[in-house]
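Deliverable D2.4 — example input (C-alpha cells):
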C-alpha cells in the first residue's frame, strides 16, 4: 500500500534525526532526574495538617525489675503519644550517623534521638526523694523537660531555626504528657503507705501517739480526700488519657514510616517520581510537534511534498503515511519513559498497570494529531520552533504538567480540561496514586476516550488544512 511506503520513508527520517532522540527521550529523563534531586520530598504529597518528627531510637529498653508499667520501652510510649494523641507523622531513621548527615545537608529541620539510657531514666523519674524511690530523677525545669536528664538529644538542622524550634516544642510537649502522669501516679500511690505516714509524723505534732489503726485509716482518708477534691482527675493513673479521664486515643499506624534512601541522593520510589514521571511523559509527548514540524519543513524545502501531490495518492493516504511513523515514535517514547520511571526512579505502576497501556496509546493519538496539525501549517523551521515551543509550553503550564494539579485552584483545574494534557494527567493520577489500593477503571477509560477524541479532531483538521506545496 502506498501509505506504508511513505510511512517507512518518514520513519527512517525520524530515526536518523538526532534531535528526535534528544527531545523525546534524553531531555525528559534528564529533567526528571534534576528535578527529583533538587525539589523537596513534600513535592507531590497532598497537603495535610501533620508535622513530621524524625526520630532515632537507640533505647536499650526497661531496666531489670522495672515492674508492670509501662511494660515496654519508654521510647515506644513517647512515639505512641506523638502518633496517636498528637496525630504527628513520625519518621524513624535507622542510625544517629544518618540523622546527622540529613540535618547537616539541611534535609531535616531537626532529629530527636532517644539515647540508650532513655527507658532507664524515664523509669526513675519521680517527684519524691531517695527514701521513697531509689536513685530518683526529677527531669522538670523552667523550660519543661531537661532532655539531657532523660538521655534525649535533638540534632538541629542546618539553617532551619524555626523548624528546629517547632520540633523541640513538639518533643517537649510529648515528653511532658508521658512523664508527668507517671510521676504523679507513683507519688499518689505512696499516700497512706508506711513510709508516707512515717514522714507525716515528723510534721504533725502528736501524730506518732495515734493508734496504728487510726494512722492507717487517716492515710486512706487523705488519699480519698485528694481524689474527691480533684474529681476531674485520676491521680492513680499513669497515662495522660487516664489522668484526665479521657478516652484512650485510637492507634494510628499510618502516621509511622521509616526513612529510606539510596545512593547519590536519588531517593528511588519516593512520591515525587510518581508525579514527575507521568508529568514529563505527557509534556514531552507533545514535543513531537517540533520533530514532525521540522520533518515537514525539510520535505517542503526538498520538494518531496510537491512530488507526493503529483503522485496518484489521495490526501488521506499522504496524511496516514505521515501519521503512522510519528505514532510509532510517540508510543515508543511513552512506554520507554514509564519503563525508565520503574527501573531508574523506582516508580510504582499501581495495582492495575495494564491500564497504563490505553493511557499511553490515547495520549500518543492526541499528541500525534496536534503535531500533524501544527506541522502541516508551519512554513519554515523558525515558525515550527516559535509556534511549536510556545504551544507546547502554554499547554503544559495550563494543564498542570509543570505544577501538580492538586496545587492548582479549583477554577484553573476545571479550565485545564480544555487541554489533552489534563485528561492524561488525571488518568495517570488515578492509576499511580499510592493511597489507592484499587483503581476505578471508569474515569481512566473516559479520559482515554476524550484523548482519542482530541486526536481524531486534530487529525481531521490536519487533513482539511494540510498543504502540500
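Example output (designed residues):
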Amino acid at each position: 500500500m502506498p501509505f506504508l511506503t511513505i510511512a517507512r520513508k518518514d520513519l527512517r527520517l525520524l530515526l536518523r534525526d538526532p534531535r528526535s532522540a534528544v527531545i523525546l527521550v534524553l531531555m525528559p529523563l534528564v529533567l526528571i532526574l534534576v528535578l527529583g534531586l533538587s525539589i523537596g520530598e513534600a513535592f507531590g504529597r497532598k497537603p495535610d495538617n501533620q508535622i513530621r518528627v524524625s526520630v532515632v531510637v537507640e533505647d536499650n529498653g526497661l531496666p531489670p525489675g522495672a515492674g508492670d508499667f509501662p511494660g515496654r520501652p519508654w521510647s515506644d510510649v513517647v512515639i505512641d503519644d506523638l502518633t496517636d494523641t498528637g496525630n504527628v507523622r513520625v519518621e524513624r531513621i535507622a542510625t544517629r550517623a544518618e540523622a546527622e548527615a540529613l540535618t547537616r545537608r539541611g534535609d531535616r529541620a531537626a532529629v530527636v534521638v532517644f539515647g540508650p539510657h532513655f527507658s532507664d531514666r524515664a523509669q526513675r523519674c519521680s517527684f519524691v526523694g531517695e527514701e521513697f524511690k531509689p536513685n530518683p530523677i526529677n527531669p522538670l525545669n523552667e523550660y519543661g523537660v531537661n532532655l539531657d536528664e532523660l538521655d534525649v538529644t535533638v540534632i538541629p538542622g542546618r539553617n532551619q531555626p524555626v523548624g528546629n524550634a517547632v520540633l523541640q516544642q513538639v518533643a517537649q510537649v510529648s515528653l511532658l504528657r508521658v512523664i508527668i502522669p507517671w510521676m504523679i501516679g507513683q507519688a499518689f500511690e505512696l499516700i497512706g503507705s508506711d513510709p508516707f505516714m512515717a514522714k507525716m509524723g515528723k510534721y504533725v505534732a502528736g501524730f506518732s501517739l495515734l493508734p496504728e489503726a487510726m494512722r492507717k485509716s487517716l492515710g486512706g482518708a487523705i488519699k480519698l480526700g485528694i481524689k474527691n477534691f480533684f474529681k476531674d482527675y485520676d491521680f492513680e493513673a499513669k497515662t495522660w488519657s487516664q489522668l484526665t479521664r479521657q478516652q484512650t486515643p485510637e492507634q494510628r499506624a499510618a502516621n509511622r514510616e521509616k526513612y529510606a534512601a539510596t545512593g547519590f541522593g536519588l531517593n528511588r520510589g519516593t512520591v515525587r517520581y510518581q508525579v514527575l514521571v507521568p508529568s514529563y511523559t505527557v509534556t514531552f509527548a507533545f514535543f513531537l510537534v517540533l520533530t514532525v514540524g521540522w520533518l515537514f519543513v525539510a520535505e517542503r524545502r526538498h520538494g518531496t511534498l510537491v512530488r507526493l501531490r503529483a503522485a496518484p495518492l489521495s490526501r488521506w493516504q499522504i496524511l496516514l503515511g505521515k501519521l503512522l511513523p510519528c505514532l510509532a515514535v510517540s508510543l515508543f517514547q511513552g512506554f520507554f519513559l514509564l519503563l525508565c520511571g520503574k527501573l531508574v526512579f523506582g516508580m510504582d505502576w499501581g495495582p492495575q498497570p495494564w491500564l497504563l497501556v490505553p493511557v499511553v496509546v490515547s495520549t500518543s493519538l492526541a499528541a500525534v494529531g496536534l503535531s500533524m496539525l501544527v506541522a502541516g501549517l508551519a512554513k519554515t523551521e523558525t515558525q515550527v520552533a516559535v509556534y511549536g515551543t510556545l504551544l507546547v509550553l502554554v499547554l503544559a503550564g495550563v494543564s498542570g504538567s509543570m505544577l501538580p494539579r492538586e496545587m492548582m485552584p479549583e477554577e484553573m483545574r476545571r479550565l485545564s480540561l480544555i487541554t489533552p494534557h489534563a485528561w492524561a494527567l488525571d488518568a495517570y493520577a488515578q492509576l499511580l496514586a499510592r493511597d489507592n489500593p484499587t483503581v476505578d477503571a471508569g474515569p481512566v477509560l473516559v479520559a482515554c476516550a476524550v484523548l482519542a477524541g482530541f486526536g481524531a479532531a486534530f487529525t481531521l483538521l490536519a487533513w482539511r488544512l494540510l498543504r502540500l506545496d
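The mean pLDDT is 81.
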